[in-house]
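Dear support,

I submitted the protein below through the web form. The confirmation email said the job was done, but the results page showed an empty box. After a refresh the structure appeared. I'm attaching both so you can tell me whether what I see now is the final result or a partial one.
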Amino acid sequence: KAADQLTPYEALLQSFGYNERWTMEALAESRTCLERAVQQDPRNGDCWAMLSLMYSNEFGHWDIRDPASFEKAMRAARTAVLSAPLHSLPHYALAQALFFRREFPAARTAAERAVSLNPLDAATAAFMGLLIAYSGDWPRGCELAERGLKLNPNLPGMYNYTAWHDAYGRKDYRRALDLALKLNTPDNFYQHAVLAMCYAQLGEMDAAHKSLQQTLSLKPDYGKVARQLHGKWILPELVEQLMEGLRKAGLEVAPRPV
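What the results page shows now:
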């Protein structure tokens, strides 16, 4: 169906495809369909939740620095929670909106609520684990992320990022490479960037240079914004370890702010 012919429920289902494709085009398509869906059905908490996630992802994944995205994400998430307080997805969306506002204790509370409301949902466990780990509780976050992948080994590859960051942070670069190869998002520059880091840390320079070129073909200004992009998600110490891998791969990275 054309986007303007989808019912709110069909728009909701369509939006889940973003985590499979993980492209700017998929995000824009989902956001447009969901904005129409909540106009048609303003009490649909799950549609509001997915719309909140799209607004958050504009900032978190695609470097769209629209200050309004923060407020739109939070407003949509709170509307979702009020509309469907016993659904997991609204609390999932609220956790991500709070995470990007750097309200980490509140984000972890919302994340745990999302998991408790739907404990057998693999994607919720995996992504809430990621948010909990990146917001400061690394052991709990890694445990949840691992649980999600055990519940459903066929989750989209991007759910391996928590385990990847854990392995890379511990300098287990061989395991980090194995996990990076599972990401399966070839149209997203992050995958090629983390492959370049791993290959460089392992001394496999031909593969590192190839991955770096693929990164730059998708994100030409990556060297200028790499620290900022990764810093949206993880703590400064690990960001610098990532920058070290990128430099080894041959990327000219902007200096760390004083």
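Response: this is the final, complete result; the empty box was a page-load delay. The radius of gyration is 18 Å.
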